[in-house]
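Recall from the previous lesson that a structure prediction takes nothing but the amino acid sequence as input. Here we apply that procedure to Glycosyltransferase from Ferrovibrio xuzhouensis. The sequence below is the only information supplied.
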Amino acid sequence: MQQPAKISVIVSTYNNPQVLGMVLGSLAQQRRGRHCADYEVIVADDGSGAETAALIGRLQAAYPVPLLHAWQPDAGFRLAQSRNNALLQATGDYVVFMDGDCLAPSDFILTHSRLAESGKFVAGARSYIKRRRSVAMMAAGTAGRRIRRFVWFWRALFAQANRPFQLLSLPVNWRRNRNPEQWQKVQTCNLAVWRADVDRVDGFDNTYTGHGLEDSDFALRLLRAGVTRKSGRFASVVLHLWHARPGAMRSPNIERFDSLLTSDRIMPVSGLSYLAVQPSARAAG
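The prediction returns the following tokens.
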């Protein structure tokens, strides 16, 4: 399998510096080895205030790898465009997307290095940390602690998290190519893709605003471009901290995604290249 030379980890965030500090701390504590690519971390910031910028500034001086901050003005929920902004700063030949409330086990980068395969994107898994444990971790200030997979496997068995068996590590060639054309349940809380394939589909679609379906749009267009899905289950997992969720509402993106489904389109309505040639568009609502 082709091994990445450098991985760009893109972490999305919005006005949650305490949890972002925990996430960045987990990414600073990654195991390294001959199978592990070099990496950088880029925070895709959808308009956070000064406290988030100050946190990143404090961490940058002593962070073990390059830590970059891709910020755009707060003009509503614009996650797709925020990730494209981060991609403009990324220098890796392989990209891993994470959410800013997901902790990375210490073998996260190493595992993605081993799973990488030409012509495929890797859809990883997540385990949800239960509310009581999440609150205790945030109160204790656990930023910078190493997240050990086997420890969390046992904690999950004792109801501190769900999906305990996702925390097991099975061989990288274990049933990885089931459902290679499935875009459903591909989520950018843990998604890896070659940068060349990101560019092939021109990144995320900036027209997606509000919550949901920007990751489905991205995955479907990758599949149409000939990039198939590889399962990262029982190999690559993130630990999702509990947080309150908004009530159910109709996403403004449903019509956008329905339009994609009924077409054979590969390119976004407005993608990465639009921001690259028109930087002022980052400030547009």
